[in-house]
Amino acid sequence: MKFNTKTIHGGQEHDIAYGSVMPPIYQTSTYAQSTPGGHKGYEYSRSQNPTRHALEKAFASIENGNYGLAFGSGLASIDAIIKLLKPGDEVISTNDLYGGSYRLFTKIYSEFGIKFHFIGMQNATNIEDFVNSKTKLIWVETPTNPMMNIIDIKATVKIAKKHDILLAVDNTFATPYLQRPLDLGADIIMHSATKYLGGHSDVVMGALVVNDKELADKLYFIQNASGAVCGPQDSFLVLRGIKTLHIRMQRHCENGKTVAEYLNSHPKIEKVYWPGFESHPNHEIAKSQMKDFGGMVSFVTKGNNYQDAIRIVENLKVFTLAESLGGVESLAGHPASMTHASIPKEEREKTGVVDSLIRLSVGIEDIDDLIADLRQAIG
Ligand SMILES: *Cc1c(COP(=O)(O)O)cnc(C)c1O
């Protein structure tokens, strides 16, 4: 089955009771047993739920993986991965990553004796300098948030395999429409399904997909034992979202390209971060590992003035000023005062998050309205 068919049918069977085409929302915590242990594969909804199960099979299908797991949020799914580790273990993570992942690693798991190295991975050979006998996990996010850096997944896989280290890829920004890290040799794919997979800004959810049975069993054990599962209603919504992932992504990419090119030619804009530009430092890697360049675009204004950026995001009318990304509607964010406000100015500026940086999640509205909105807001 090809990707555009998998989004609609992947892992799905018609309901056995009445043949309903969409899986019923099994809004139940428990299941009747005829005799102790006599059940139909479902005992308790933290452990298994048919609606969540349908979604988990869809996650696995679209990522070309064998096993999918759904969690109550993207962070809950990352939390499950880190629980594979033990005190004394070390993790090598990209240094330009989602702020919530950074917070989980440094504020929670550092306290449990796990050591994190945050490094620039735009050149994958850097990773090897930090590998030692305690290294158990490499954490990759690509494209990164909000600087749109690209990390070479294949080159990272080589290093991970050579040293027998697990490689996890946060595939939230790219989605399996653009890149499929398991096909490139990664061990775990993680998603904030809150973003493009759900696609309608109406649900918070996380996903993991793996190929290896033993790894899947361990993660399932953690999912059930720690209990950060999602409910059947949310499972239904994300399953519905995935059915249009391919056509939404196609439009996100088209609109993203037009917005990036418009901003790049604007006299008041200093720099635009988008992996589709030939001038992007890892453009060639993006071209080889991604089908297209996505709908996320960041930019800074000439003069790098904090107030200019605030004025622009406040003036936008079609774009909504809000956290999050990946929904059908266009959103704009100002990392320095929003997502990255808790990071000291000096620290955030090291990775490029300067005062005038604006991040756009370009939606699937009519492109003329999006360009007109940016034109009037930038002035
Ligand atoms: C939003 C996000 C997360 C966290 O997911 P939640 O669903 O908000 O818990 C992790 N990684 C990336 C890249 C994200 O954008």
From TrEMBL:
E.C. number(s) listed in UniProt: 2.5.1.48
Pfam family, one: Cys_Met_Meta_PP
CDD domains documented for this protein: CGS_like
The protein's enzyme class: transferase
Gene3D superfamilies for the chain: Aspartate Aminotransferase, domain 1 (3.90.1150.10), Type I PLP-dependent aspartate aminotransferase-like (Major domain) (3.40.640.10)
GO molecular function: cystathionine gamma-synthase activity
Keywords, in A-Z order: Pyridoxal phosphate, Transferase
InterPro entries assigned: Cys/Met-Metab_PyrdxlP-dep_enz, Cys_met_metab_PP, PyrdxlP-dep_Trfase, PyrdxlP-dep_Trfase_major, PyrdxlP-dep_Trfase_small
rRNA processing as UniProt keyword: no
Cofactor(s) listed: pyridoxal 5'-phosphate
Similarity section: Belongs to the trans-sulfuration enzymes family.
Name of this chain's protein: Cystathionine gamma-synthase
Organism listed in the record: Gilvirhabdus luticola
